[in-house]
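The records we work with from here on pair a chain with its fold. These numbers are not coordinates but entries in a learned vocabulary of local backbone shapes. To see the layout at work, look at the sequence and tokens printed below.

. . .
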Amino acid sequence: MGTLEGRLKGKVALITGAARGQGAAAARRFAAEGAKVMIADVNDAEGKALAGELGDPAAYAHLDVAEEDDWAQAVDRTVAEFGTLNVLVNNAGVLHFSPLGQTTLADYERVIRINQVGAFLGMRSVVEPMSTAGGGSIVNVSSVEGLAGMPFLVAYTASKFAIRGMTKVAALELGERGIRVNSLHPGMIDTQMVSDAAGGAEVDFSRVARRLALQRVGRPEEIADVALFLASDESSYCTGGEFVADGGATATHALKL
């Protein structure tokens, strides 16, 4: 819990991919700081369990971020359940490793549909309810791969660059409505998504950690802290920005020894 109790008091947040990992950490952090939280995911069992854990400040909605109808239902449910909608965290995403020459169109399109189209649909879905609420904050979770490339991640990198660009367009369009839009760029974070992308194998982060200024990979809670800042009124003059939490990954270049 932060030093400023209730930093999100009175706010209602919809967080995608919130059943586990970064999304779950954000849901817990937001609820602890006074927000009402709609936990949205396709993982119904874990999502409902988290909502039960958090109690009255939380509810769960099934949401496939690539489906327009799911978005409409999740947003309507959030407003019906909590009375308004002030914050959207577009966190849901998938990671897919493969060399460019061996990346199938189906795999590429799957990543783009979930990561990129999902973020687009999310932003579009909250324009009206946030406008009605008098403003709000959209936090689009991109990646350090939205700032620079990485081998074997052509689809993921494309989707995260797109999120970065869409964030700026949305910020320019929605500023007059009092809606702020920023992108959040995590580095290597110890989450289940990384293990899943590695085929369920145990991931050895030590090699990655040695290349980082802080000499370690990040924790989901550390990303949740940045999302909290962007969701709160503490970031009231921040929009169209890129907020990096990567342990120093983007402070160097490929020639680092």
